[in-house]
Amino acid sequence: MALDRLIEAIAKKQNPTVAGLDPKLDYIPGDIKEKAFRQYGKTLDGAAAAILEFNKGIIDALCPIVPAVKPQCAYYEMYGWQGMKALHDTIAYAREKELFVITDGKRNDIGSTMQAYAAAHLGKTEVAGETAAAFGGDALTVNGYLGSDGILPLLDVCRAEDKGIFVLVKTSNRSSDEIQNQALEGGEPLYETMGQYCEEWGEALPGKYGYSGVGAVVGATWPAQLGELRGMLSKTFFLVPGYGAQGGGAEDAAPAFEQNGLGAVVNASRSILCAWQKQNTAPEDYAKAAAKEAEKMRDAILTKIGRIRL
Predict the structure, then answer these.
(1) Which of 108, 136, 169, 283 is least enclosed, having the fewest CB within 10 Å?
(2) Is position 278 annotated as part of the catalytic site?
(3) pLDDT tens string 22-36
(4) DSSP character for 192?
(5) Where are the domains of the chain?
(6) Where is the Orotidine 5'-phosphate decarboxylase domain (predicted)?
């Protein structure tokens, strides 16, 4: 099961974190952009080339440290098909470096449309009797608030292709309580019900470490709810956004973990990608600055949760 591979990588590197690859041109050193613009002009092609080179530098620096990366589709889609090719090439490069790739697409639809999303991001696409992987990530973030019709089409693909999903449960954004905290007839908040569905859906994808292939997205910006859900959802592995630029810290993320230091992977994006700017580092050392920030994050979380044991 795919999340078993993630859990094993977390334990091997003693690092329960994932680096978000959400690049903007503002994050990229000038020399990388200038090189791309000389070759392709100030075009979508030039932007995509700069992003890919930047990402490769980040991946090279981080692959000994982090077990996983998480590219956010929107940061590539905004640069058209050229950006989507950069997403494909980023995923391929990360997997070459033996990193687990969580594609952050937050896809949601039903039936054959969700099957198409599953084929695109987790499975294979058929072309006149031949099949090929379109993007090839290891896991995909999805929105389950359309109900089971939007989740069940993914499970067969996950089982066949050894992939996983992370379902939005209690998201890190400030206004998530407007909808996700609404009380249902029994008095429980909506996010709890979504979490229980993750447990049920996960029965189809059991894992050898007690966690299924259906994970949950629960933000570090809501530490009380994070701890509550950890106590309720014993078989659901968490993807925890909100660390760093959104205000969450190691103490906020700690409730996501159980006594063996397992149970979650914590994401940081801007704090890692922009570390060279915050640290006043020379632009050519942007990747070294990212590695330093990733190590700092790892050490802060391990201080709170202790050694990770399978």
Answers:
(1) 283
(2) no
(3) 999 999 999 999 999
(4) H
(5) 2-302
(6) 16-290
